[in-house]
Design brief:
The complex is a heterodimer of chains A (about 425) and B (about 80). Chain A is α/β, with parallel strands linked by helices and about 425 residues long. Chain A contains 10 helices and 18 strands. The relative contact order of chain A is 0.18. In chain B, the strands form 2 sheets. Chain B has a 4-stranded antiparallel β-sheet with strand order 3-4-5-6, with no helix packed on it. The two termini of chain B are about 25 Å apart. The chains are: A alpha/beta (about 425), B mainly beta (about 80).
Chain lengths: ~425, ~80
Amino acid sequence: MKFSALSLLRHALTGNREWTPHWRDAAPKPGYDVVIVGGGGHGLATAYYLAREFGIRNVALLEKGWIGGGNVGRNTTIVRSNYLLPGNIPFYETSLKLWEGLEQALNFNAMVSQRGVLNLYHSDAQRDAYARRGNAMRLEGVDAELLDADAVAKLVPQLDFDNARFPIKGGLLQPRGGTVRHDAVAWGFARAASDLGVDIIQNCEVTAIERDASGRAIAVQTARGRIGAAKIGLAVAGNSSRVAALAGLRLPIESHVLQAFVSEGVKPLIDGVITFGAGHFYVSQSDKGGLVFGGDIDGYNSYAQRGNLPVVEDVCEGGMAILPMIGRLRLLRSWGGIMDMSMDGSPIIDRTPIDGLYLNAGWCYGGFKATPASGLCFAHLIARDTPHPVASAYRLDRFATGAVIDEKGQGAQPNLH
Amino acid sequence: MRIPCPYCGERDAREFSYLGDASVARPATDDAAAYHEYVNLRANPAGPHREFWYHASGCRSWLVVTRDTRTHRIEGAELVR
């Protein structure tokens, strides 16, 4: 069923009692052309693009829990493409362009809101670094504006410009950045993929990856039985190491927890997304009025989808440094999500050494903004066996060859990225 | 999270800094593949994990802490030898 003004009106007049499920809750068939493991944003997007762009519709998407219950429902909803390195800019810009047309493509309101992402700088050196970043972005056709303190004060007058320790000297603004409603992204992709014939199979944890005599991956064992597959794609961020281990692979990845926070609802206060460049803090305001914010990862290996208090304190300190007024707000809730932290801070979309097994992993905490491009590029890789041009740098062997993409310059220290 | 330092007793985790998996060993050879394994590849288990912590705000010892990555529960800590 397509959403339209007419269909919304009809459902409104019938008391919204006649809505039907938006995707089929499928039962597994014995085999598929492609099995995608992981029903998060990236897995759903991959299944959708496999069907829509590459005509592969005999696809199963396996999710151990339920759709939207993992990282796609746990992030802070920010989308942007303000990257510096050549391997990254075209990929994230492709993603932002897909976000811009996503609602029309999916016929689903994902509340794509391009309110601007503003990275504050606090020193001359940081201004130069942001000028360089902005220039790199504009060379690739990405929008970027370097603002001085007066321009920032005009945009966000409520920031603390008198801070002696971290004076706000300006910011790098990407006007096309913003936020997208994350749950709607999962539901929209699930609905569109299901409409194209993809079987979305929930409560179906993969417990083994079966290989034939030549070593090729040919099937998965699941909580709902054996499912054969000509090709298997892993998109299980947070659990990539565990699922890859089922095929005997060791990955350049550690799992870490990132916390996020929501304050009580207040009247409109922050229009776009603001990041505090001197520490690590980012904040936006949800449509319900709560301030949504976060900061650093807890910094040690974790699968416990909850964090610890020192980082809560650190994040709140970062917030207080630029917006002292938020000290008056109550914290409504906080939660943690588990992410793949890769050794260079950049993702992996590549074939694995095992034939028939493909990997989409290592998103660190930049996974949500990448969702559509990650799905498109992973679908391209699975369908054509060659990397998509904008994701050709995201190779699994780059750690061995030295062709790493170290956006933060932190080396092989996943807890620092 | 509180870490039982063998010298200082149980102390808050914020006195320590983390340096990752303690099960990897520096290779004896200068073979590139062995170094790739040592620098980059990790088992990343969900469960008990032996990991390095540095007691920066205490006795400044390096510890190997055994911690369950699913619960943050700490089994124990010993000095690095």
